DNA sequence: TATGAATGAGTGTTCATTCAT
DNA sequence: AATGAATGAACACTCATTCAT
């Protein structure tokens, strides 16, 4: 969850907490924010769950909002890594499948992370850097889909839109896994991932078909 | 937005405010909750926007949470009405198109309403009645989709799942309209609605196709 | 202490506190700030002394700092009024005596007020308006002294400087009265006020006298 | 600024900081206290400015308050030394001139020191020893003035009072120098020092003159 | 001697809610 | 029905101080 180059305590000096106070805070906040929401999670709660004093939060983060942004970016970073890991040699569809599968596994192993990025509305809480990091994540998917469009695999229309369409359905499945309604091995994710592809796939049923008007 | 049987002033007698104090509060809360969120909208703000004193809120609602639940249910009621208005004589697909179109128009004319129901996470704020009202809304769609499944129009698999899949994409379009990214006449909603149908439609590409594994 | 045109509750509507909650807060703050200092006087203390709840402070003042500035300006206003009340027909010396006497009486009847303006260092706590109000007070004295200088009553040199010199000694006496070391009728104030005049009076001993060098 | 008998490291052995950690802390605190005030200067700030860790403060001082008292007494000691340096053989007036001149130079070379003793209100922060040390300083001046009174140079009335009167004006000039409004060579200090003497000098205009009543 | 992470009591401030008018 | 001053518990955050290293 945390990247080494971001933790200031890489000095090896620690007083009595080999597990890392900062990491404990990050975990506590992540879990509370994603289960009870940002505003209902209080700093006393976060501290208690992390097993530290309230003031300790502010030794590691400037503010509660800063804490949110830090964990948000760390989460986005992890999700983005999964996108970049999908080999560019594969077809668009295969790459999306890889990405979905990686995220699915993440939703199983670290549900809070998925919730934080995809299922929580953060309003004005995210700073520009955090917004930018999410935009980059979306852009990575967009690039995959854009190549799919050039290859005739994906429908005509804005690649951005098909990105959001694909994401909306993948996230639907991830949410169910994160909520433990579905397991990773369940058919559900599989079916929904396929539906996600079908929603953006080029075919005789694609956009512009006659008779599709409302 | 408000149903007569819910307002305590059903007496028909109005003292000095023909617009209805309660309605003004409902409007104010609806707009604030959907733009700034529940927790960041304060009762002073709501009262000021409604043009009444702070205490007046509690003459019409037991609490801020109760106010949220009231407007939430009123919103769900409106959306549900649109579902029921789609004639059962039509095909599944046609009925879904009607529903989507009705909601699309609503998103154009009353964006806050759409946001409240579909785009705001309410956490533990909604009471059982409110949750139930949303469940009913979803069930209405489910029924439509279940008939589509019997008719071979919709893929095999849980009708509930295809309901959520269809909803996820329709909501995606509604959000863009509510945010004024798209107008009601835009191609966007059209394309996405079609994708929503393709995502649940039965076809040779449907679930269970070989080679779809991850 | 408070001017009618500044209190927003001139409506005559009051719930249960005919004495005026705002005035009680002003009094409490004035006394605490001048006895224990601004930083050591806490909002719980102020509220308790005023006999109200802590939150009530913020119904009347934007912040603790705002509260300080309000009472500061009110105090300066009172002191300035005393300056303006001294008839311009009198000699410089007589006017200064009138002013000193008025302030002396004020120090006896409302010591906190004198302390707030003359004896407390407010650092960066005062806003521009408050600083300006004090500057005006000093300028009023300066004008009196400037006329004295034109009339040959006061030494040559900056009228501003003689203002501060005169003020420094008058304040010395006021402080002793405010601290109840001296009463209003005591010789002390009298002697010091005379010394204050002698310090700025033009005479054969005035500035530039030979042998005065260090 | 620091006296050897007060520093705990009187061993003569210095580990790695020839400048003296304690002295650095004293300097940092002196400057911060006199520019931003005691309460607004935090221990992190003091430590940072001294270039040491926060905990190091407590290796040299029991508490922040103790630190204040230490530097306060050191400052008073320096000012007192200047008083004692004025030869008793001189006239009262000449001795006061010497003292004022010595302080004036100090205000130019070490303004913070002057501010700490004469311009900062310390409320209940000073311990009995510190108060005593200031009392001694004042008593030294009082003694000078008392001899002046016996010699008929100074007005009748309490020597204590004339001490405070003289001090008030001298401090007025010192403040301007410390704030760099005036330089040491400026006429201002000169004029004000003379006024200070005139305020306490015996003369035909002295206390008890007829017509001086308010 | 020096460090700096950790502490926790305390701060100023907010806000949903009450109630005398 | 409507008001708005008053409430007080809760909030995010600060900071002088401690102590294992």
3D structure, described in words:
The structure is a homotetramer of 214-residue chains. With 214 residues, chain A is mainly α. Chain A is built from 9 helices and no strands. The first copy, chain A, has helices spanning 21-36, 43-50, 54-60, 64-85, 92-109, 111-119, 128-150, 159-178, 187-200. In chain A, helix 5 (92-109) packs parallel to helix 8. The first copy, chain A, is elongated, with a radius of gyration of 20 Å. The N and C termini of chain A lie far apart (46 Å). The model of chain A is unreliable at 1-15 and 205-214 (pLDDT under 50). The A-B interface holds A 36-37, 39-40, 97-98, 100-101, 104, 119-121, 123-124, 155, 157, 161-162, 164-165, 168-169, 171-172, 187-188, 190-196, 198-201, 203, 205, 207, 209, 212-214 and B 36-37, 39-40, 97-98, 100-101, 119-121, 123-124, 155, 157-158, 161-162, 164-165, 168-169, 171-172, 187-188, 190-196, 198-201, 203, 205, 207, 209, 212-214.
What is the gist of this entry?
4 copies of one chain form a homotetramer. The first copy, chain A, is an all-alpha fold. The first copy, chain A, has helices spanning 21-36, 43-50, 54-60, 64-85, 92-109, 111-119, 128-150, 159-178, 187-200.
């Amino acid at each position: 969850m945390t990247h080494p180059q971001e933790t200031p305590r890489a000095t090896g000096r620690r007083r009595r907490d080999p597990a890392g106070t900062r990491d404990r805070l990050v975990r506590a906040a992540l879990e509370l924010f994603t289960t009870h929401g940002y505003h209902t999670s209080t700093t006393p709660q976060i501290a208690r769950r992390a097993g530290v004093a309230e003031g300790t939060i502010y030794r590691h983060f400037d503010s509660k909002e800063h804490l949110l942004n830090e964990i948000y970016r760390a989460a986005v970073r992890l999700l983005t890594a999964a996108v970049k890991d999908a080999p560019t040699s594969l077809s668009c569809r295969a790459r999306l499948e890889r990405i979905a599968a990686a995220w699915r596994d993440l939703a199983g192993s670290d549900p809070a992370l998925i919730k934080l990025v995809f299922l929580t509305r953060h309003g004005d809480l995210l700073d520009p850097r955090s917004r930018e990091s999410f935009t980059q994540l979306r852009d990575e998917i967009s690039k995959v889909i854009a190549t799919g469009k050039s290859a005739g695999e994906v429908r005509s229309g804005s690649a951005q839109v098909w990105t959001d369409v694909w994401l909306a359905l993948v996230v639907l499945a991830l949410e169910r896994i994160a909520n433990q309604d579905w397991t990773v091995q369940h058919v559900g994710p599989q079916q929904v991932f396929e539906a996600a592809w079908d929603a953006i796939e080029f075919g005789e049923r694609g956009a512009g078909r006659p008779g599709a008007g409302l």
